[in-house]
Amino acid sequence: MVPRRLIAAFLACGLVAALLPITAFAQDNPIVARMAALAALYNAKDAAGIASIYTEDGVLLAPEFAAIVGRGPIADHYGAAFDAGVSQLRFEIKDIRAHGPTSAVEIGDTLVTLGDQTIHGRYLHVWVLQEGVWLLSRDMYHLIGLR
């Protein structure tokens, strides 16, 4: 069995201007597109690419870890997870809500593979619009269990 702290290191995500007229799950929703890009980078094991989806001062709050602040440390976190064998991120967005024209909150579920196990997690993302690009400002997740 994989230790809980090790599992926590592997999950993350773990990713709306004018979202008001766009449904949360529409393919043209910019948050949906950013999450698809994040998953593609994750599945390519591109830690630096994932970190580029965060703001410069982005914060990743992973279970049993101190806050991981900034793109460099976030890339290191993902790199360590990939080195340990985590792969195959799948996500399901449950809700996206705009909070003004330049911020949105997203919640969803994730599945990642570690060896022959599938780890189920849940996340909350705070997205901000900076210079026309949606970036992750805050990313918090917790583990639900193994499937």
Q: Can you walk me through this structure?
A:
- The protein is of the alpha+beta class.
- It contains four helices and six strands.
- It has a single domain, classed as Nuclear Transport Factor 2, Chain: A, CATH 3.10.450.50.
- The radius of gyration is 14 Å and the shape is globular.
How would you sum up this structure in a few lines?
The chain has helices at 4-10, 30-43, 47-51, 71-83; strands spanning 54-61, 68-69, 86-98, 103-114, 117-130, 133-146. It is an alpha+beta fold. The protein has one domain: Nuclear Transport Factor 2, Chain: A.
Task: Itemize the secondary structure elements and their pairings.
Elements: H1 4-10, H2 30-43, H3 47-51, E1 54-61, E2 68-69, H4 71-83, E3 86-98, E4 103-114, E5 117-130, E6 133-146
Parallel strand pairs: 1-6
Antiparallel strand pairs: 1-2, 3-4, 4-5, 5-6
Annotation keywords:
6-stranded mixed sheet; 147 residues; 27% helix; disordered N terminus; 43% strand; 6 strands; 4 helices; Nuclear Transport Factor 2, Chain: A; alpha+beta; single chain
